[in-house]
Write a sequence for this structure.
């Protein structure tokens, strides 16, 4: 390249990184839309049961789903993130109180607690988010959530149940908000399955 042309282009190359959005995938000048994971609440919890105290450990998330970014995919093995759309908090953090409320509704445990509650627990539920994604490579588009759960008897030091839960729901519209609606419907299915696992493996 001619030296003069190179000198003209060099400042542009230096400035390009500075044009990156403040949020991954965000377009400049557009407001960020934030969404909640908040499926339909379970029925009012009955009186506490006589079963053991259940500790719901802080959920974890696999790489790619461990931030507020809303993931989508248009082809296998490629994960992308919506511009101008994000979860209000990391999905794993939003999942914790949802698990507690759903398991309280079983009415089987003396208490359902989280880390730091200062109480001794007989059982512990560990949860990992393996996927929370809107999929456009299928028709109609859908939201898919995959949870891995493990229920452990702390006193007996044995695993009572371990399962990979996958739930999907079609999106009512092929946009981020449609994905949010579908994700909450899929999560409701997954929470019901978690409750079934816990009810069958440890309780009264």
């Amino acid at each position: 390249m001619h030296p003069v042309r190179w000198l003209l282009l060099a400042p542009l190359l230096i400035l390009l990184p500075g044009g990156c959005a403040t949020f991954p995938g965000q377009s400049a000048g557009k407001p960020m839309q934030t969404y909640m994971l908040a499926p339909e609440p379970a029925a009012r919890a009955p009186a506490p049961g006589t079963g053991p105290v259940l500790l719901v450990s802080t959920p974890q998330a696999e790489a790619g789903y461990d931030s507020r970014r809303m993931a989508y995919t248009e082809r296998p093995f490629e994960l992308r993130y919506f511009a101008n759309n994000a979860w209000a908090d990391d999905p794993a953090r939003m999942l914790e109180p949802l698990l507690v409320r759903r398991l309280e509704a079983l009415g089987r445990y003396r208490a359902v607690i989280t880390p730091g509650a200062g109480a001794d627990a007989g059982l512990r539920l560990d949860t990992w988010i393996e996927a929370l994604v809107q999929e456009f490579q299928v028709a109609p588009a859908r939201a898919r959530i995959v949870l891995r759960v493990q229920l452990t008897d702390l006193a007996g030091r044995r695993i009572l149940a371990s399962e990979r839960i996958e739930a999907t729901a079609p999106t009512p519209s092929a946009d981020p908000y449609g994905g949010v609606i579908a994700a909450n419907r899929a999560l409701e299915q997954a929470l019901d399955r978690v409750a079934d696992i816990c009810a069958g493996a440890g309780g009264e």
Strands lie at 33-35, 54-56, 60-61, 69-73, 80-87, 112-113, 123-135, 142-153, 158-170. The CA atoms of residues 43 and 148 lie 24 Å apart. Residues 176-201 form the longest helix (26 residues). The chain has three helices and nine strands.
